[in-house]
Structure formats: structure tokens, C-alpha cells
Amino acid sequence: MTLAGGGFERYGKTTRRAAFLADMERVVPWARLIAVVAPNYPTSGRRGRPPVGLERMLRLYFVQQWYGLADEALEDAVYDSQALRDFIGIDLARESVPDATTLLKFRHLLQKHDLTRALFDEINVHLAERGLLMRAGTIVDATIIAAPSSTKNQKGQRDPEMHQTKKGNQWHFGMKAHIGADADSGLVHTVIGTAAHVNDVTQAHGLLHGEEIVAIGDAGYQGAAKRPERTSNTEWITAMRPGLRRALDKGRAVDALIGQRERLTASIRAKVAHPFHVIKNLFRHRKLRYRGLAKNTAQLFSLLGLANLVIAKRSLLALQARGASLSVPQKRGSRPASAISRHQRAQWTLSSLAMATQSEIDADSWIDQRLPT
User: Fold this and answer.
1) Hey, CA dihedral for 334, 338, 344, 349, is it positive or negative?
2) Residue 117: how many CB atoms within 10 A of its CB?
3) Quick one: how far is CA 252 from the chain centroid?
4) In principle, which of 83, 87, 183, 277 could form an S-S bond with 137, CB 3.0–4.6 Å?
């Protein structure tokens, strides 16, 4: 036992981990999320060990998602990191860290009662009440998340619910995460998990909330407006096929205008990549940890809900700095003045983009001219 270990440190600094956890302490709506899980969480009065406090288990679970840790690795990390113990509220002088089995049972509880989806929805309600979800337009996209391809298991086979697909010249085995994100803020409002071989356009309309003026997607969503499952009058704007875009003649006025439209839609569409960056690069979720679509899709709801908080962190902290209370929600549907102006700008931009698709340029005839006869 050293003096440094006993809390008599002379030197120190706020690490990036401690700063991140401090920010999450302020932006996560703890009371609301605890209220979502509480009706299904066991209480005292049962045989065996008394259950660990719900808030502590929720904090443990969030730390696991933020740092991409297995159950046993999370237990070791909490013992090893003072910043994690301070965030979770564990004093090793009085109590031990909940073991890996306790966290496993908590994850199973969340999956059994579909609580990860409920947590995701509650986070989005929290963000919408603060004017951070505009709902004027939706950007759709999908990403492949790799699954272990090893057959060294009891059944001697790969996960039967995962499939392989080819992207470019590379084959991938795993699942696909389809998301619908707000066109103004980039926050995710809809999540669908499928096997990797499922075509993006088949899930396009399931990613819409129904109030959009415009839905934007890459070239993989061409034909979405003609799908039989379409139920709204949302205007679909999809990117050109890469080969057709490369064939544009920049010297022609029509081709130059088409290229300008493609750059504009690409600049808006880029926001949908931010949630994927957060979960894959910041949360380190590049490979699936569990077997089966149900478990992995449940984890996606948790990851993308927490990613929304990370993306909206600056806005939430700014609202808090201006005196907006994060613990007392506004009336649902109301927006602060700054959010109303952002909402109006988003509607104007997306409406203008939708009108551009109905301009005098006949894209279909232009493509027909370049197809071989």
C-alpha cells in the first residue's frame, strides 16, 4: 500500500476517460432511463443475494457499451480504473464490483423484455423534447458488422442467422445494421437489424417515421419510391450509380447541374455516417460479440441510443449552460427558439432539394441516352 494508492497523490490530470464520463454523467437522462427498466427489475425480498441497485447496473451496462468490453473484461476494468469506479459509484473499501455473471443476467433481462429498444426510444424522446430531432427529413443507410466466421464451437458451424455478402471485391460475413437518421441533426430514430445479404432497398420504408418531407439515400436505395410497401408521399432522393456519375460531361450545362445536385445530396447524406463512426470507431463495435440476430439487434439499440447522446453532447451541454434543465422535460412537441430556426432551415433546404428533383431536367431520358442500344 503506497501513499499514492491511498489517495494522497500530489500530481494528476483529468484523463480523456474521466472527461468523457463526466460529460456522460451530465447528458444521460438517468432518472428517465431508470424508470423504463424499473418495472421489470427484481427487488429485494427474494431468496439469495439481494439485487444490485438498478442505477449501478445501468451504469455498468453503459460503460460496457462505450468501451466495447466483454463481461469479464468489464469487471477487471472497473477494478483497475478509478475513473470507472467513481462514475459507477463503487468504493472498494466497502464493496466489491458486481461480477461478470451479474452483468450477464442484467443483459438477459434487457433482452427478454425488449428494454434496449425502450431505452433507445426514451433517449430519442428526451432529445426531441429539447428540439434536437427535427423530423423534416430522413437519411437512410446501412453498414455491415462482421461476425466470427470460426466453426470451432460445439455445433461445428457458423452462426446460422448470419450470412455472407459481397461488397465491391470483398466478401463479408455477418449482419447489417439499417438506420434512419434525422437529416438536420444526424441523430438515429429507427434501427433495423438483418442478415448481411439483405438488400438495403427492401428495408427503406421501414426506416421512415412517416412525417418526412424528403428521404435521402445512396445509390443502393434506387427504386425505393416504387416499392409496394410505400405508404407515404415522402419524396425520395437517391444518388446516381457511380458509373453514370463518372460518365458526366462537365462541359455540358445539364451534366454540370446534375453533378452539382449530386454533391449537394452527398453533403447532406454524409451525416448518416456519423452514428456508424461512433459505434465502430469510438465504441469499438466492429465485430459481433453474440450469436443470433435478436441479441445483436438488441445491442444495436443500446449502442445507437448512446451514440445519439454522444452526437448531441455539445448541444445538450449548451442547453444546460444556458439554464435549460435536463431533469425537467419541456412539454412534448415544444422547441426552444434556436431549435425552431434550425427546424425552419432544415425544412427549407429539404423542400428545395425535393423541388430540384422535379425540375426541367429529365434524368431518366438523360440516362437512356447513355445506355447502349
Assistant:
1) negative
2) 17
3) 41
4) 183
User: 190: part of which helix (H) or strand (E)?
Assistant: strand 188-195
Residue keyed to cell 503506497: 2
Q: In angstroms, rounded to a whole number, what is the distance separating the alpha carbons of residues 50 and 238?
A: 54
Is the distance from CB of 179 to CB of 190 less than 8 angstroms? yes
Residue with cell 410497401: 229
**C-alpha span between 239 and 103 (Å, rounded):** 44
Output the CA–CA distances (angstroms, integers) from residue 127 to 132, 231, 271, 283, in the order listed: 5, 26, 17, 21
Q: Give 263-296 pLDDT, tens digit per residue.
A: 888 888 999 999 999 999 999 999 999 999 999 9
First to last CA, the chain: 83
Closest CA to 85 of 7, 77, 99: 77
Pairing type for strands 235-238 and 170-182 reads unpaired
pTM above 0.85, yes or no: no
Q: CA 164 from chain center: how many Å?
A: 23
Q: Which helix (H) or strand (E) holds 100?
A: helix 100-112
Continuous segment of H or E residues that includes residue 224: none
* Rounded Cα gap, residues 36 and 42, in angstroms: 13
Q: Which residues are paired to 316 by β-bridges?
A: none
Max CA pair span of the chain: 83
Distance of CA 350 to the CA centre of its chain: 22
Over the stretch 216-232, which tens digit does the pLDDT of each residue have? 999 999 999 899 888 88
